[in-house]
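Exam review. A common question shows you a sequence with its structure tokens and asks you to describe the fold in words. Practice with the pair below. Do the first one on your own.
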Amino acid sequence: MHIIHIDRLTINHAGREIFRDLSWAIDDHDRVGLVGPSGVGKSTLLKAILGQVTPESGAVTIQRGISLGYLPQVVELTPGRTLLDEAMQPPEGLARLEAALARVEAQLGDPAVYNDEAALTKAIDRQARLLAEYDAAGGARHESRVRELLAMLGFMEADYALPAETLSGGQKKLVLLARLAAEGPDVLLLDEPDNHLDVAAKRRLEKVITAYPGAVVIVSHDRYLLDEVALHIAEMDGGRLTVYPGNYTAYATARELARLRQQQMYSAQQKEIQRIEAAIARFEQWASIVVDERHIRQARSRRKMLDRMAANGEIIEKVTERRTMDLQLNGWRGSNKALEIKGLAMAFGDDLLFTDVDLLVRHGERVGLVGPNGVGKSVLFRVVLGELEPLDGTVRVGPSTQIGYYAQEHQTLAAWLDRTPLERIRDIRPMAEGAAVTFLLKFLFSYEQLRLPIRAMSGGERSRLQLAGLMLEGPNLLLLDEPTNNLDIPAVEALEAALEEFEGAILVISHDRYFLDRAVDRIVELTPDGLIGYEGGYTDYLAESGREY
């Protein structure tokens, strides 16, 4: 049953058309993954459903009585309140009932009321009605439900007193999600709820979404999460929305098959159109030579056939390849032992991060480095790069090995924030300005962006610029620290394709489980006591380690 119906919606923003004549229906108890390239309008569509964005034309119809809950990309909590205060904040209807009950309780304590039998009876009757409404609205179970959800999302009771302003972006999202899920709206609209979460937190998030009794629409770039929770995938691309049954993997397969079928049908139809056009040309030529009315009628008949096909929308469109960055990481043959770490230990002051770390990465290997946040994965990279001195142990980089480093927080761009992408690229490899412009356009930058300071760039744009720099540096050992953060799915797929062709060694830190399944052939898990190795990708690591995440 459709509970939300979107009919031919058109939305413009700052003079730019986001999408036109978009239609969609969301069913009761559905779980939909909303995907598409960055900037296509996914967040705008959620805001249009909420009524926060006014369309140029079209309409959003929500079935009477259907309630919505919204988790935005960036969550701001109230400073001065605790984590538990924020999570316990009741929904508007429940808050009104609590305020009404408080007023009745105050009346019952008023001598003018409890000494007046009629007034007392009236107040008691009102209290009974309000208590019945409060119970029907779930008020009596609200606190226990919030605590249950907080525990499901990984919070301990010791966390409850944390000031809201000290929480990380990921923690703030989970607190608001607990509040929303406890309210129990009919539809949850979640805009990238998995951002800034480690794998364990994502796994807990998946369980909460899967168990949610209402409908859920989730915008996410995490393909593994979409595989776990989605019953349908709604793809926004080129101003259109197409719904595919199944999870992300089923969608990716169906989309590719549909693309191949469309290309085959387009080629066949074009051959037929060319045959008809050739016949028209022959009939017109014969008619001009012999002035034969029959040839003229035949030419007209075939021309009308083509016109009807066009008028009825029967002309099959040519498949247009999705535009994405043209990343090519070529690499080259270097030392057989690209990187060798022995007995490495690292500490900051009296805090020991890890010890007894041994790792050998050979030429051609793809190794995924996993472990919980705070265990020291990025620190290990900085030791390999020589930026930090280890407490103990040795790091040896092969003599014919050149390292290329991708920094999670874009630290490689820190000294260039007030310079332009053109200046950065031409510093890595001197080239004419025109050649630099052509190169950067392949990474989806606009002409205007090339002359703006890097400081003005989004996270995704800085990520693409870092990858462009790696391509020019031409290393044969890649140290990649969360390279898929900030990238949309098409960009991640372009990165995966480039890594597949890369001739060299790769050591990559990632919380992107789908990416790890596709990009690496060995997982090493960093623990305080060293590394534990597992053959295969992320799914193999789960099976062999017995972990839930």
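Now try the second one, then compare your answer with the model answer below.
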Amino acid sequence: MKAYNIFLFLFLIFPLFLSAQRGEGRKRAKDKKAYETNLKYYNDIFGAKDADFNITESPAEWNTEPIVMLCQKIHISFLRDSEKNGSKTKGVIRKRVLIQDKAALDDFSEFYYQNSSAFGIQHIKPDGTKKDIDLKNAVKVESDVPSFYSDDYHSEDYNKIAIPDLEVGDILDYFKVFTEKYSGNVELIAPISYSYPVVSQDIIFDVDKLWNFYYNTFNGAPEFVQDKEGGIDIKGRKRKIIKRFILKNTNQKAQKEERWDFINLTEPIIKVMALPPNSNFAGGRKRDEVKNSIEIRDLFRPAISSGETAGATILGTTNKRLRSLGVKQMRKKEKKVNTIYTALRLDFINQSLIYRAAIAGTPLMTNKISTTSTSGSMNADTYFSMKSNVFAAMFSTLLKKNDIESEIVQIVPRYFGEVQDVITRKEIEYGVYVPSLDKYFWTLNNYRNPVDINYDMAGATGYKIAKKNLKRRGNTFDEVTIPASEASDNISSTKLNIQVKEDNSFDVNSVFEYTGRYKESHNSLFLFQIPILEEDYDKLSSEKDKAKMNRAKNRKSYRRIKERNETKKEELSENKKEAIENWLKGDFELDKLENFEVLSHGRFPNNNILSIEANFTAKSYLQKAGPNLIFDIGKLISGQIELDNDEIKERNKTIELGYARTIKNSFKITLPEGYKAQGIDALNMNVDNLYAAFVSEANQEGNTLIINTTKTYKKQSISKKEWSHLVEMLEAAYTFSQKKIILKK
């Protein structure tokens, strides 16, 4: 009987085993066929027969460069997607790089490459010997990838493989074939200059029929030329129905990097936007439109229309909230508008937390979202930002329902260039202007306050139109320039009360305060969702809704959730403490963070300052010198910019600081009894010109040393001919940071 059972078991499992073997065999055969198909596609585009990849030597002028790109070609096909669920591109990239010094060997001895439909590396010696690198020992990359290996066309995961016996003078010739899927339009802004020189490069776009294609080149990049013979279709056939555009570029010098540079305004770049046949964002254009320009006003209506659709659910929720608060009956317009903004912010965050997995990356939200946690509001660093066209559509609608007239603005941030240079949608931001308040409002996120200035928009240009006129044809769009922010709008303030202990370490009570851009950059460090959402609900719920919530608090299910949240809050608080401790280590000789407290989160108009108090211990500022102490006092203002001689002498580009700003430091240092500070006169500095300032004052009152410094960048943009004025301030600040004084017994 037992033998029968065993036989029956084997009889039953054997066909399954055979089936699994056949399935695995079919998969391997299918993968091999797909690889061979993609390899053929590569050879059809620019494979082994491409004579441009026979280059073996660098021009003499680049012999001192660590690497030289002898030849690179990028071929991107915009394809019709038979699945009709988005759009896709098929790409082929081939590069041939010459290694010219020992330092570069470290960068290429481990070669990084992306998961691709087909990929290969050939190692070529100076004598012409060629070896194909076996990829079987490649490993998946979990860490950051060196910038050389990344590009703007392909987004899959990386692997790395060792290149044995790599030496100076060797060449690596490699290629990849890949497919990228998109949920809608394809938008690219990509450089044609890099940190290394390029002897020869081609960028080729093949555009299938029914696609709309907009393109142009800027800042000295060669123009695209259309090939009348057409391009290659998905099957590798040359067809005139496929429109081909080619950019040819030779002897491209390496980028000369300068700090404070908007590279989209200074380095040669290309811009491309391709709209697939199923795009709902064509702006009423016919299909097969191919142009080297685009009129951004034509994108106004479809952007707002799609924004209204994406935000419909939240709109209903916020309308209900505003009615319960009696917003329409409020007499002060400013209070009414601010309440509408903060109510919309609350409902957007709440829905985003609930439906995070479903809405991330949809037309509602930008892709600025942390995915380290999926437990609702329990992720300390979750960041939600509404797409600007969705915000403009919803906010203007809510204003109108509450009797506030508004205009929608369409702005091009300065780092993208001028209005006439726009090619892609991602260069455009939308906002709302309320004439009765003479105030601009910008897309919301977890932290943004209705009175906050969006520094990205400051000084930028674009168009505006009244919401009621937007759907009418033939209306005039008014040109508009957003006011620039002032140095007083963006303040970073550090206040330290320092007690010097007997072992010469410090007890420090610190208060950090931020406004404007500084507040925006520190929000995610100091804040997390639970406390700020609780305050939002308290401020933006009617008494009736609060009573309903209080009744819900008595339910067992609510108590369980609250207990879980309180436990999680403690964990998050510890996570925040660790993050803040690491942040403090970047500026101070931190020993231990004792505690911290958020004094003000700055998310409401009546309190617009982000403020945190922290108590910590510090060391390494004082060194004994006999009975005296040497005090590295300049280190208290943390790292200052150290310019090298070449940088001081020459500036080739406009200085794009992004925003005017002020950095303040205030120190009160209680010295040990019997010590007197010597050399504090050298801490009094005053450099002040039209573009920048550094002012410091120091004095001693009893056993307390008082020091105040103010560093000011007065403009958001400075002409390169005025560089010396900024250098004057930077040198003064750096000199202060190196100062030492003596505490004499």
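Model answer, second protein: Confidence is low (pLDDT under 50) at residues 1-23, 357-363, 365-380. The first helix runs from residue 2 to 46. Full marks require stating both points clearly.
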